[in-house]
UniProtKB/TrEMBL annotation:
Coiled-coil boundaries: none
One Pfam entry name: Cupin_2
Domain spans labelled Cupin type-2: 30-83
Protein name per its UniProtKB record: Cupin domain-containing protein
SUPFAM superfamilies xref list: RmlC-like cupins (SSF51182)
InterPro entries referenced in this protein's UniProt entry, alphabetically: Bacilysin_H2HPP_isomerase, Cupin_2, KdgF, RmlC-like_jellyroll, RmlC_Cupin_sf
Cross-referenced CDD domains: cupin_KdgF
Length: 102
């Protein structure tokens, strides 16, 4: 079992790897209000679970809001990003592992 430190993404967002294997990685992202997950894409399939807070997501051509208990999947190579509307935490799973987060 590994213990990973929190890493500042910027002034409004931190991330912490919770668990990883070559096939799967689970990462918690803590956002302050106004924090932005800049639009990006990657080869990994991503599942996002909103543990707390409120967020506005853009996934491909869709825009939608999520709150506590909401979850969804982002397919490989689809551009996505979010803005934090209320302080909160997102828990993302990536398959395979995001080696750039290690």
């Amino acid at each position: 079992m590994h213990s990973f430190p929190s890493v500042a993404v910027d002034d409004h967002v931190t991330r912490r790897v919770l668990a990883d294997s070559p096939e799967l990685m689970v990462v918690a992202f803590d956002f302050r209000e106004g924090g932005v997950g800049a639009p990006h894409h990657h080869r990994h399939v991503q599942s996002t679970y909103c543990e707390s807070g409120r967020f506005r997501f853009h996934v491909g051509e869709r825009a939608f809001d999520v709150g506590p208990g909401d979850s969804f999947v982002i397919p490989s190579d689809v551009v996505h990003g979010c803005t934090c509307l209320e302080v909160g935490r997102l828990v993302d799973s990536f398959a395979p592992r995001r080696d750039d987060f290690l």
